[in-house]
Structure formats: structure tokens, C-alpha cells
Amino acid sequence: MSEPSGISVAVVGLGFGEDFLPVYLAHPQVREVAVVDTDERRLTTVADRFGVEARYTDVAEMLADDRWDAVHVLVPVPLHADVAVAVLEAGKHCACAVPMALELDDLTRVVEAERASGKRYMMMETTVYGREYRYVRDQLDSGRLGTVTGYRGFHHQNLDGYPEYWRGYPPMKYSTHALAPLLALTGTTVESVVAHGSGTLTEDRRGRFDNPFPAEKGLFTLRGSDVLGEVEMSFFQVARPYIEGYDVHGDRASVEWPADHEGPLVVHDLLPLEEVQPETGLRGRRARTDLVVPPDDVSDLPRELARFVADFEVVPADGGPALHREAAHGGSHPHLVHEFVSAIVEDRPTAIDAPTAAAWTAPGICAHESALAGGARVEVPQFPTGRS
Hints:
Layout: E1 7-12, H1 17-26, E2 30-36, H2 40-50, E3 54-56, H3 59-63, E4 70-73, H4 80-89, E5 93-96, H5 104-117, E6 121-123, H6 131-141, E7 148-156, H7 176-186, E8 190-198, E9 215-222, E10 228-234, E11 243-250, E12 253-256, E13 265-270, E14 287-292, E15 312-314, E16 323-325, H8 328-331, H9 333-346, H10 354-372, E17 378-379
Helix pairs in contact: 4-5, 5-10
């Protein structure tokens, strides 16, 4: 009898993990899925909803089971590095939510664990797989933007009322959503950073971290590039709705994120120089501004996953009413899952392997160090890829 085709995947942490579960279940190269969560009630509810039989309340028990080839880690951020290392040392491939880790030493641990294990690691950075990034990438590749001359990334989110481990979280240590698009677009890494904290956290928000700042702002210089990246982050005491995005400015055109986070992208095209603008008599080059809804490109997805780039419905296996699910993070989830699964099946590094993930995470860690030091310049370490 032939062996069943495809890989088996365990999803660990069903808070955010439930968003990815239907994608894995639909993937044509995934033969079996397990779920893991320490909350037995949530484990039972989600597993019943999706008809998943394999269930664990203990990560170690699942890792000891040879039945599982790969693990998607969606546990609280302070546990990311330890669980990722445990997954790789157990001889399983590992996908992990952002950020990779909270300290530089832990980034190195994960990089070394991936190399020693021979397995694949992928940091599941949503911003470089969303429809907005794909649109910007296409505009850059086509020449419409010209040369990139400026970048501003931002992530503002109020974490009051979130679980205890978020209290006092240093905003810059979660900066990959705001910074990764720049690094992916330019194909380089951060050389150094100068950052400052802004405001003072109230005592009841301090938590376990060495962080006095509700907001942080940083300037990032890139290796081999004259583009300067500006990033601003806040998790507390900033009165604005959630936004997670970036502006990319070129010498021919620019793309800017919508102020309300949900609207179309704002695209500015620089027009030819007029000696004198006839209506006003002013000089300088004008720009035309358009609003653009970036399209969903599913050309690189299996047909079974195409529906997950937009909002979709889940028909529960336990007979409950249909559930509406949002395609969050720019419809990136099926693209992320497909890249992870494909890298395993094709036996190649993932697009965001451990050295790349470390290079995208380290700048935020160094930025917080700079902010604590009053804006001192901090060099960001390099992480050799060793891709094979």
C-alpha cells in the first residue's frame, strides 16, 4: 500500500490560529491537520467546528508524535522563540507568527536550530503577502514608481484590555509589520537605527518589560541603499483607530496607505514639468492623485485556496450555523500557508526563512535599545543565510 501524499500540520494556539485552520484543511498538499491549545474549552469548540479529530492540550505531547511533519506556532509572543526551537529540535518544520523573538540571542537560537535541524522555518509576516504589497511590488517592478526615495511604516494599536503579557510591550519589538515591506521591496537589510521613545507609560501599563514608552519612532539606514526608512509604533496612550501600513515614495509615483486603514490606496503620479501652471501662475511639478483598490491575485494559489483571499463562510462540521470569516491582513493568509507548505514539499528554503526573519526582527529590538539610550545609534547584526 502506498503512503498517503502530502504533509501533516499541527496548528498551535487557536486564538489567531483559527484564522489559518480552514486554509490548511483546504490545501491540496496537506493530508491531515491537528490542533493544539491549553484552553480545553476553546480546543473542543474549534476542533468540533472544523471537524478536526487530532487534538492536544500539550505542545510537548504533540511534538513527541511522529505523525506530524510541520507545526504552525501562534502562541503568545514571549513564547515564540522557545516553541520554535522545540519544534525544530523535534525534527519538524516550523511556521511562526511575528515577531520571531524578543531578544537578539533568541533570534540566533532559532537561526541555529533551523540550520542544525535541516528543517524549514518561516516567519509568517502578513504585510509582504497582502494584496497591498503585491500592488506596490508590481508598480515598482513595472517602473511606474521609478526609484524609491522614501518610506514610512506605521502600526498604531491600542492594547488596553489585552492579555497580561502585552502590558508594557515595547512597540518597536513588534515592528516587522511596519518595516518588512521596505526590506522586501529593496532586497536588503538594516545597517543601523536611531530611535526615540515618545510619551511615558502610566504605571498600570508598565508590565514585565523594561519599557517606559507608549510610542516609539525610529530611522533605519539600509545596507547598500540610500533609502531611509521611517517607522512609528504605538500600543498605548495614542488616541487613533487601529492602522498597520506604509507609504512608499518614488521619484515618479508614490503609494500611500489609506488614513482609515480600510479604504483604497492613494496613488500619486508626478506630471511633466510646466514652466508656469496656467491656472495659478505657480511653478513646480504637479501630481495626479488616484484612489486604487488593489486587486486580489490568486494566480499562484491552488484553486482550493483562492476563496480565502476575500471574506468567506465556514460551514461548521458540527452542524452549527454558517460563520462569516474575514480575510484579514490583506488576504495574505492563503499565500503564507501555500508558501510554507510548498517549501516543505519542494525541499527548499521558505521565502522568510530563519536568517531572513532574524534580519527583519532584529532592527526593532535594536530600535528599542536605541530609544532606551536616548537615541544612540545602534548597529544591527547580520545573519548569514546559508541557504541550501
